[in-house]
Every structure is written in C-alpha cells, then in structure tokens.
Amino acid sequence: MIPANTFRPELNEVLPIHYLAPERSTARMEIYDLQGRRVRVLTEGEYSGYQGTPEFHKPDFFQEGTFGWDGRDELRRLVPAGVYLCRLEVERRDGATSVDTAPIAVGIKLDQ
Prior knowledge:
Layout: E1 6-7, E2 15-22, E3 25-33, E4 38-47, E5 62-69, E6 82-91, E7 97-106
Parallel strand pairs: 1-7
Antiparallel strand pairs: 2-5, 3-4, 3-6, 6-7
C-alpha cells in the first residue's frame, strides 16, 4: 500500500494537494528539496472569493482548493526519489501571514 503522501511520478501519478485559504488572500504553494532549494512553484495568486455573496458568507470565509504535483521541477524534469517539502504561504487581507509545510515522499517503481 502507498500512503497518501507518497507517489510515483515515473508511473504518471500526480499527488493532489488540498488547501484552504481565506477569502481575499494571496497564496503561494511551492515544492522544496531537503537542502532548501526550490524545486517548483505550483501556484501563486490572489483569491478574491465569490462574485456574489453566498447565504453562508462569513467575514472569515475560507475557500478550498486542490493543486497537483506531477513530480517535475520548473524545467519539467522528473525529480529523483526522496523526500520533499510542500510549503504554503498565505497572506490575509489584514497583512497577517501564515506558513504551513508538509512532507512529500517521491517513490520509484520496483521491479518484481
């Protein structure tokens, strides 16, 4: 069995990465190797919320998103097997910034 945070890009697997960001915030999601080198920027953008105001609208309403990493670097090359870090930085409209990181294991296909 392969844990949810392990995937094998050489088999065309893509790892979905789920996140929440406050409405009207700026988010940047990046992948780093364990030496601290940035491997890839997955997303960078401003989340402005809904065009209309939903019934359940609250001042701190969060938006959910999903991005996937295909195990490739900025030059579209497959990364070597190993452990990487996904870093999500979110800046709210009041200027407060939060950072969250999670490990990702890139595996390889084993011959049987």
